[in-house]
Structure formats: C-alpha cells, structure tokens
Amino acid sequence: MQKKIEVTSAIINENRVEFQVGEAQIELTKIKATGQMLVDSDALSFIYIAENDSEYVYLSFPITVWKELQEMIEKNYIPVLVDGKDKLTLENMTEELTYLIGNIEGNANYGDEMVEKVENIFLKQSS
Questions:
Q1: What is the C-alpha to C-alpha distance for residues 71 and 99, in angstroms, rounded to an integer?
Q2: Which helix (H) or strand (E) holds 73?
Q3: Which of 6, 22, 92, 116 could form an SS bridge with 35, CB 3.0 to 4.6 Å?
Q4: Whole-angstrom Cα distance, residue 58 to residue 44?
Q5: What does the pLDDT look like over 42-77, one tens digit per residue?
Q6: Closest CA to 66 of 1, 124, 3, 4
C-alpha cells in the first residue's frame, strides 16, 4: 500500500529548502527517507519515496514548487520536509532529482508537457 502527500509550498531558509505539508496528513516522526524518487508525468510532479512500518509514502512535489527545487539543486541546499512541528531531511534528493531531470530532457516517453516544463524550469539557465 501507499499514501500520497502533496507538498503545498516551499521556503528557502538559510542553507535549506523547507517543503511544507499539512500537519494532519502524516506524522513525520514515523516515516523515514529512502533516497529514491519517481516521476508522475500525468500530475506534473516529482515523487520522493518515504516509508513507515507498513507502507510507502509518496511525497509529491508539484510544479508550484519546482522553482525552489531548481534553486535547491543550483545552490546545493538541504531539502527538508516540514509539517509545522516536525522535520524530515530528504536524503539523496538532489542527486536523484538531477538524475531524473537528465533523463527527462528531450525524452518524449515522459510526455510533451512534462518535458517542456522540466526544460523551461530546470534547464533554461544552462542552455
């Protein structure tokens, strides 16, 4: 089984990017980071996989926070999930996201819209 939680906003705080989720959605103290990511092309989201004792927890990063994801990669900020009271460092997220972006670039298998959005947000500075 799996549970999906959507990140609602992101804040740059010193050398961290704090990705906000609603407090009632999950207890961050009961999940752990796996260091693995997926792509949800239909929802235009990147998915970070976390887990607890009984299920995977999919943390969805929609296009509304991609600017902060791009800044996280560019400035090597630490990604942290925050729910108002607890925090969870998202281990290996920068490396996984960078790898996925490289795979998506020019790859129609991810869908034209996903490729276009990823290239415009993450790759336009380097081209």
A1: 16
A2: helix 66-75
A3: 92
A4: 14
A5: 999 999 999 998 899 999 999 999 999 999 999 999
A6: 124
Q: Quote the crossing angle between the two packed helices 93-104 and 66-75, to the nearest 10°.
A: 110
Selection from 68, 54, 65 nearest residue 26 by Cα: 54
3-state SS class at 94: helix
Structure tokens given for 46: 């990147």
Report the predicted TM-score, pTM, of the whole model to 2 decimal places: 0.93
Structure tokens, 13: 């705080």
Amino acid at 101: I
User: Where are the domains positioned within the chain?
Assistant: 2-123
Q: How many CB atoms lie within 10 A of CB 27?
A: 12
Query: What number of other Cβ atoms are within 10 A of residue 54's Cβ?
Result: 8
**Digit-coded pLDDT (tens) for 85-125:** 899 999 999 999 999 999 999 999 999 999 999 999 999 85
Which single residue is written with the structure tokens 């995977």?
Answer: 56
Compute and round to an integer the Cα radius of gyration of the chain: 14
Contact 25, 86 (CB under 8 A): no
One-letter identity of residue 91: E
